[in-house]
Amino acid sequence: MAPVDKWLQHEGRLIKTPAAFIEQLMNRVLAVGIPLWRMYVGLQLVHPQLQAMGYLWRRGEPVESVARAYGVQFTSAYIGSPLQEVREQGHPVRYRLDALTDKHHLVLHEVRQGGGTDYFSLPMRIRRDGPMPVVAFATDRKAGFSDADIDDLTRLVDMMGAVTEMHIEESVAQTVANTYLGRQVGQRILNGAIRRGDGEEIRAVLWFSDLRDFTGLNERLQPNEVLELLNNYFQLVGNALAAHGGEILKFIGDGVMAYFPAEDALFLPMVTANALNAARQVIGDIEAANEARAAGGAEPLRFGIGLHVGAVTFGNVGTEDRLDFTVIGSAVNRASRLEGLTKALGVQVCASADFNEVCMQPMKSLGTHRLRGVPKPVEIFTLPD
Q1: Can you say whether residue 360 is alpha, beta or left, with left for phi > 0 and alpha for psi between -120 and 50 degrees?
Q2: Strands annotated E in the chain
Q3: pLDDT tier at 77 (50, 70, 90 boundaries)?
């Protein structure tokens, strides 16, 4: 195992993804003579949608990533499996696959049907609290694993533990950053933009959307109903933004603050069109949702969207040890004020003259109006009839 250990220390720890790491590691394990045919490692995640991620390697095939949704621990695929046995009891298990009976778990029969003869699974010790990773090996050699093979595989799991833990920690950091900050902002933070005052000026389309009469909804509905309503609304807005290149920057109560970056002014016609298409998708999706709500006796969702384009400062504000990554500038304020005007004008979308000027899609003028905090009246546009 010395060549494998040396590779782990010098090269293996630098590989970026778990799948690539496992593939290269298993090739080196084969090269030192261990008769592996199949290997699986299951990693618990900190993720809003997935409970675990598995990586399945089979000799001569690329590594397969297997996502496990929440609730997998209550399914027949897990209950009674060797992975559950190892994870809950914390000790290795071994099964000679030529001696299986109907009492053995389906996964063991599947490995045997694929050509496996011997199965060995054990826990991986790491520092992180919670369910431990579990590694399972199988061979198709007729004689199965030798005692020396079992010793080598046990040492291998210890040897690969530190690198695996690095991948787990990176996954957790990436997931937390993406979930709470968004992909683009999260990546900036992970790349080191974490000092107070760090920032850059960018040109972007700003989006503010807000539910109407949210205060009244809070009074009329139970807290769990309000939470469900908000999540459904946010999901529709988030789906539309993601489909058209926008990204949520933050949730503000019942409001959504988002942006569509435009690296160059030449891209603004395309970016403003994307923002309008996202607005149309939200309108259509919420109309469909309101039909379902009406069938169930619930009141409809009503909302407004404000759109503006301009230069904003993108960066960190806050205290020395508690920061928020946000956008600031007059363009942000105008987008917020435009959203507030949708109710008074009886429309779902209000866009600025600056937005209309660079947008190639036709828009309808609503005349000039005053925006709170803006000295002069400004012309307002909306979607055409």
Answers
A1: alpha
A2: 38-44, 50-58, 64-69, 93-96, 118-123, 134-139, 199-211, 247-252, 255-261, 303-318, 323-328, 349-352, 364-369, 378-382
A3: confident
Q: List every span in the chain annotated with CATH 3.30.70.1230.
A: 194-382
Q: Where in the chain is the domain with CATH 3.30.450.40?
A: 2-180
Instruction: Report whether pLDDT(58) > 90.
Output: yes
Looking at domain 194-382, its CATH architecture is 2-Layer Sandwich (3.30)
Which pLDDT belongs to residue 277?
Answer: 96
pLDDT band, very low/low/confident/very high, at 276 (cuts 50, 70, 90): very high
**Quick check: 250 pLDDT over 90?**
no
Q: What average pLDDT does the structure give for the chain? A: 87
Contact between 240 and 333 (Cβ < 8 Å)? no
Residue 170 clears pLDDT 80, i.e. is over it: no
3-state secondary structure of 368: strand
What contacts 193, CB < 8 A, 6 or more positions away? 315, 316, 325
User: For 313-328, what is the HEC assignment?
Assistant: EEEEEECCCCEEEEEE
CATH 3.30.450.40 fits 2-180, yes or no: yes
- The pairing of strands 303-318 and 349-352 is parallel
CA dihedral in degrees (97, 101, 103, 104; nearest 10)? 10
Amino acid at 4: V
- What the block records as the tokens of 307 is 């759109």
Residues 6+ apart with CB under 8 A from 50: 67, 68, 69, 70
CB 76 within 8 A of CB 62: no
* DSSP per residue, 45-75: ---SSEEEEEEEEETTS--EEEEEETTGGGS
* Token pair for 350: 């209000």
The confidence band for 96, taking pLDDT boundaries of 50, 70 and 90, is: very high
The whole-number pLDDT of residue 376 equals 87
The predicted model scores a pTM of 0.70
Give dist(CA 167, CA 65) in Å, integer. 14
Q: Give the Cα separation of 19 and 54 in Å (integer).
A: 10
Q: Please give the average per-residue pLDDT across 247-254, as a whole number.
A: 88
